[in-house]
Amino acid sequence: MENQTEIRQTAKPAFLQNPTLLVVLVLLVAGFLIFGSYQTVKIKKPSEPAIQSTSPPESIKQIPPEKLPSFFPAKIPLEKNAQVLQNYSQIIGNKEQSTRQFISQKSLEENFKLYKKYLIDDKWEIINVTEGAEINSLSAKKAPNNLNITISQNKQTNQVIVDITLVGPKLIKEAND
Fold it and tell me: Cα–chain-centroid distance for residue 21?
């Protein structure tokens, strides 16, 4: 009797026998893994806003250049005949912001020294001082108001702009001392 070795051949799955099916299967699995990792989140819009503002919208009142904005200190140095770029008062919540911005004929350094001296002489508490090549700023406080003075110089035109902003409670007005 001859020794015959029986070789059993098991049937391969159809996708392994057909390379096209294998490629399609691999692409489907890869696509599922890639696109399945991205989830679409749907945000349901509420029928009414969750938070409703109780304060009125901001109101900006333009001030003629020849007048000072609300509760601006009368002693603050301002150049005569300077071109005023901005001059307004604005209500923001329970605060009032008054701003005057103008083109100065003085240098960056001259303005910085002038306004720093004003703050010291008028007994403002200087909170922050920033000095740079093209911009200087002073922030000061005198209860209940905050005063920010920014002096900037455009190096191309040499134009110096002074921006003075005073913020305080809208019901308390400092009389022009």
Answer: 56
